[in-house]
Amino acid sequence: MKIDCHTHIVNPAIRDEYFSKTEGYALVMAFLEKFEDFAPPDFSLSLVQEDSRLFLCPAIDIHRELAPQLKAVEERLHDTRIVGLKVYLTYQKGRADDPALFPIYAFAEEHQLSVTFHTGSCSLVLPTDNDMDGCNARYVRNAALAFPKVNFILAHMDDPRYDECIRIVHETENLFTDFSGAYEPGTHEGEDIDWAIATFKKAIDQFPDTYRKILYGTDFCPPINLSAISEFDTTIRGIFSEDQFEDIYYNNALRAFPRLREYLKGE
Fold first, then answer.
1. Strand runs (DSSP E) across the chain, as ranges?
2. What is the DSSP letter of 220?
3. Residue 122 has what DSSP assignment?
4. DSSP state of 63
5. Which residues of 157-172 are buried (b: 16+ CB within 10 A; e: fewer)?
6. Which end of the chain, N or C, is less surrounded by CB atoms within 10 Å?
């Protein structure tokens, strides 16, 4: 059984393609409104409501007023399997440790939600502020230390700052990471999977116990050139030992997303 902790399965066509290639559960990261002319139509809310295999992480636009967005999420908690929030750093200029964002984390703490940040390099097709400094993992660490009861996920292992990201995750109890989205065509990783596996392994092997903080995620969304699935299985086999697979594919997701753990209790 797998829990894919990072997808953009935002409409039925993408869902059907995804589950024709794999099985298990998937977390859906909703898109920002600024992506609507570049990304596929986003019906993630209704899709998650009708498909028990999917769980939702609504996007929070850090350039808009936060209170109405959080209120809208709160109103959906009773009828939608919401397990976290998504903040698109890099795409939106800002730092995770900016006190202006602290209401997001306070809300997450109140409702047992986790917060996934885009960190590092962006999609080659979506509009971005390209704030590579602001998305740095060290700022997320500061936020994690300020809110120790909230789990924070550094999506994409702060590409290309892999080594530093893993060190920060190792040192910070409530931080997790993934290498989702690595195999986008046109990137070094996408063109050379052996190089990617060796690079990720070098970073992760700095601290062998960090395998309990690594999440399985694909970033699946073919309309924006993210269609890799089997490549991630190959990568996991190339980095981790077989006795760690259950943690990578499943158990770590339950550690990182407490609300997900409640939904899947008994599965």
1. 3-7, 25-29, 54-57, 59-60, 84-87, 114-118, 152-155, 175-177
2. B
3. P
4. T
5. bbbbbbebbbbbbbeb
6. C
Residue 206 tokens read as 């700095």
Residue 94 φ/ψ, nearest 5 degrees = 160, 165
Q: Measured between alpha carbons, how far is 78 from 204 in angstroms, rounded to an integer?
A: 38
Helices (H), 116-213: 137-146, 162-171, 188-191, 193-204
Phi-psi bin for 17: left (phi > 0), alpha (psi -120 to 50), beta? alpha
CA distance 136 to 21: 33
- Give the 3-state secondary structure of residue 175: strand
Determine if the pTM surpasses 0.85.
yes
- Give φ, ψ of 4 to 5 degrees: -85, 110
Virtual torsion, Cα 70, 86, 265, 246, nearest 10 deg:
-170
> What would you measure as the largest C-alpha separation in the chain, in angstroms?
46
Q: What is the pLDDT of residues 134-187, one digit of tens each?
A: 999 999 999 999 999 999 999 999 999 999 999 999 999 999 999 999 999 999
